[in-house]
Sequence to fold (304 residues):
Amino acid sequence: MADGDAAADELVAAFTAGMRARGLTVDDPAWAPWLRRAWQRALLRWPQGLRAAAYGAGLAARVRPGERPAELEHALQLEDLALVCACLDGDAHAIAALEHGFARHLEQVFAGITDLRLGEDDKRQIVRVHLFVAGPDRPAAIATYSGRGSFVAWLRVTAKRALLNAVRRHEPARVDADDEAVADALAASAPDAELALLGAGYREAFRGAFRQALAELTVRERGLLRQVTTGGLSVRDLGRIHGVHHATAARWLRQAYDALLGHLKRALALSLAADERGVDSVLSLIRSGIDASFAGLGAVDDRR
Fold:
């Protein structure tokens, strides 16, 4: 994070570039001193995590044609917008500052969602992912905050909507569909020709064993596997939304995979009454596929 005069210069430069890219003029001499004051106020409110260039670009993207500094002073929630821009830029300190600074409001939203299938950690994780991670067909929700209007009100509405959608997804049919999707993604590591080693009826038994193995995982383990297999997240994404180093997230993910394979081995042996060598052969193929996926996620295999 840049600070002091250098950061203010960076902010002014990013704002100027952003305005010019939109075809808007910045010839008013009031812009530079106003931006510097806005930066200093933002730093007083949020000492950790702000990014000057991200803030400058974010401000430039939100200026309406013809608006001047005096108007923006009242139109935009400037200090909160500075933090939002840093979060959108992926700064882990900014994300932590947002969650801490608005914890009371988020806790109130969590308390209003009483579905017993969602624990406090589940709710927090759901909101983190929705706010800070883009999906295949949507931007990260934090990117949609315009800066105009109360950020607290926007945050509460956005968090509640994410949780209500999650409750609907946790209806039995939807949970089964989620588990099926994860099972399909992981089972793809084992080719049919190799699965045939397990004997007749292996297809349905294999899928059933995968579902059973997933059900035996902890909430965090199952959530991690869903996020990377069907949610498209990388290990660095996981680290950012869970507030840990990416190496820690990689270790968690490896532990989740290992737990899944342990449960799967037992489930397969029971459901198919197959010999141990046949089961181990298929699991070895699945582990090879998982290792390849791990490399693609940018994870470091730090098993000792």
Observations:
- Confidence is low (pLDDT under 50) at residues 171-175, 300-304.
- Residues 102-169 form one domain.
- The radius of gyration is 24 Å.
- The CA atoms of residues 116 and 287 lie 34 Å apart.
